[in-house]
Write a structure and sequence with these properties.
There is one protein chain. The chain has two domains: about 120 residues, Nucleotidyltransferase, domain 5, CATH 3.30.420.40; about 110 residues, 2-Layer Sandwich (Nucleotidyltransferase, domain 5), CATH 3.30.420. It is about 30% helix and about 25% strand. It is built from seven helices and 15 strands. Helix 3 packs across helix 7. It is globular, with a radius of gyration of 17 Å.
Length: about 250
């Protein structure tokens, strides 16, 4: 098995593409559909099944999903319907198809991509933190290269609310914050993360990472801080890599 279909379900968009899991490279065009406004399980499932058809795909599928995921089951729901809680995402998205689905937290997927083939590939010692800045804030922590799953640090409390409700890239857009003002909020968030975890490296991803030069130089952290190499493709690539690793165990 050298190729796997990777799917990244986000609060605003659902993206998919074929990934060569030996090299970590996309080997197809990326396709994208808007996430339904209510994030309903049935509606999202329909979109995913159409994506299988678009790629004529019947093999392993990795899905990055914005929730705490344990053995394929969703235990939370961030920026999607709470109807997902308690559902087995693997079963729902694989139902009626010949696809074998493996679901992982979306930020964990992005982190896997960066640690295996991206900005963290040579950083297998110490603590590495991946943050994805988008509709919300996702997080992935690696200790000596090993993932600590489902950290969901976008929900840390800052100023009495979830950090992502004050600091995400979506908040920057909706509140029309300048890069300077948004960076000030990010600084407070990253200071808190350093206080709690003392990481050796921060990797910053999500769609806004394409503009990393506009905000990363404004942040002062003890740890090295770098942009993600895969930017907004990390979720697709990492979910495919995750599925490939699970396939090897079966």
């Amino acid at each position: 098995m050298s190729s796997v279909l990777g799917i990244d379900i986000g609060g605003s968009g659902i993206k998919a593409g074929l990934v060569d899991v030996e090299s970590g490279k996309m080997i197809s065009q990326r396709i994208r559909e808007d996430t339904p406004p209510d994030g309903d399980p049935k509606e999202i499932s329909k979109i995913i099944h159409k994506m299988y058809e678009a790629f004529s795909w019947e093999g392993a599928v990795g899905v990055g999903f914005p929730a705490v995921i344990l053995d394929g089951e969703a235990f939370s729901a961030a920026n999607i319907s709470e109807e997902w809680i308690g559902l087995n995402v693997n079963d729902l998205l694989g139902k009626g198809t010949k696809c074998k689905v493996y679901t992982v937290n979306d930020a964990d997927a992005a982190g896997v991509a960066e640690m295996d083939f991206g900005a963290g590939k040579d950083r297998k010692h110490g603590v590495v933190m991946m943050l994805t800045l988008g509709t919300g804030i996702g997080s992935a922590i690696f200790i000596d290269g090993i993932l600590v799953p489902n950290t969901e640090l976008g929900h840390l409390q800052i100023k009495g609310k979830d950090a992502e409700k004050w600091t995400s890239a979506a908040v920057k857009e909706t509140q029309k914050l300048s890069w300077k003002k948004w960076s000030h909020r990010l600084q407070i968030y990253f200071d808190y993360l350093e206080h709690l975890f003392s990481p050796n490296l921060f990797i910053v991803g999500g769609g806004v990472s394409k503009d990393a030069e506009k905000f990363l130089p404004r942040l002062k952290t003890r740890a090295e801080i770098v942009p993600a190499e895969f930017q907004n493709q990390a979720g697709i690539i990492g979910s495919a890599l995750y599925a490939a690793s699970k396939e090897k165990l079966n």
